[in-house]
Amino acid sequence: MRISIVLILFLLVSFSVTAQSEDEKMLRNIYNEALTHSKCYSWLDHLSNTIGSRLSGSKSAEKAVNYTKVELEKLGLDRVFLQEVIVPHWVRGEKEQAYIENNGKKIEVPICALGSSVATPKKGLKASVIEVLGIDEMIALGSEKIKGKIVFFNRPMTPIHIETFKAYGGCIDQRSSGAREAAKLGAVGVIIRSMNLRLDDYPHTGNTNYGDLPREKYIPAAAISTNGANLLSEKLKENASLEFYFKLSCETFPDVLSYNVVGEIKGSENPDKIMVIGGHLDSWDLGDGSQDDGAGVVQSMEILSIFKTLKYKPKNTLRVVLFMNEENGNRGGHKYAELATTNNENHIFALESDAGGFSPRGFSLEADEANFLKITSWKNLFEPYFIHRFVEGHTGVDIGPLQSKHIVKAGLQPDSQRYFDYHHAANDIFDSVNKRELELGAATMASLVYLVDKYGID
Fold this sequence. Notes:
Helices cover 38% and strands 24% of the residues. It is an alpha/beta fold. It has two domains: 30-90 and 254-455, Zn peptidases (Aminopeptidase, 3-Layer(aba) Sandwich); 93-249, 3-Layer(bba) Sandwich (Glucose Oxidase, domain 1). It has an eight-stranded mixed beta sheet, with helices on both faces. The chain has an eight-stranded mixed beta sheet with strand order 3-2-9-5-6-7-8-4. The longest helix is centred in the N-terminal third of the chain and has 36 residues, at 2-37. 49% of the residues are buried. The model has no long low-confidence stretch (mean pLDDT 95).
């Protein structure tokens, strides 16, 4: 009996060592392929420098759909198809103008309209300013002090958080809800401090939401650069009666037809079990959207390219989804989830890359305890590649609506220290992306997909 037990233990250990060795070899092959023959950087070059920004509803977004569909077809996948999505069509219009008027002197400052904002009157809007550090502080002041004024939301991203997305989350409500809440109190416009830890002259856009306000109550909303915000705050301390002028010419047109782009490799053993990898194809219009989220798009495409090159045949169906309209509506994510439910599809895993093309550090995970422990048990396989962060947390806006009976979600977590220097700003361009860092991210994603595909979820 003792001999049998010893033999069983020996066989189990031998099997474990063999599997470990196989996995180490596969991950090494994945990283080798990504770092030597990757297509993702050239794909991003085309998306950024030939097509450019890809705001939902725009001609360039349409070009991006066509381009990525063709490139996925070139990989020889089992299926490439488009999913129809009706998306918003908001246009920025002419370049925004703004200045501080203090004792007859005008000081120009950089601003940009927030997504979905209405325009100012054609000649612009000028009014006195009231500075607040948040929505609650504004509400506490009451309509008597807010009515007829421009509300200046100046709560900065706090620098104390090492995880910069936590700092971002701590002040984003000003941008998303500030205009709506200020309008309820009679404000005529809002100016929002850019969501950026760096002091510079780049205003950062992002969507604002008027909720259920009647359209005639909408007020114009713009972001001001961090340097501009500091200057405005300083001048208000000198003269609380100064005025601020800004001019926006943005416009919202009727919704238009667009698409999610989908490519898949059928599973060799479990074709009905689907694993999704993706990023969002749309971007804001100030830069070319290389970090947000061109990087995630091409990294997701690269995973299927790597597996095709290595002749890896997945057990489960691998599906790359390039989502449309994450930035100002998330309609692509909702449409994909809706169709998955309608078609009774069984999604077991979803992975999103939407945090920039910087050096990968690990993954955030939405999983039950058993699957979280299972995935974290693979950490030693990632250690040679400096991947160490496996934490519970938010994984991605696009995969957020996707639900299934048993599903594990993951979000690629690159180093976040520089991300908000570029996020939603005019300097989010191709030159901000490092080729090697981009490729390392693709390899890291492919490695996790391989392990989940091989060992499944519990």
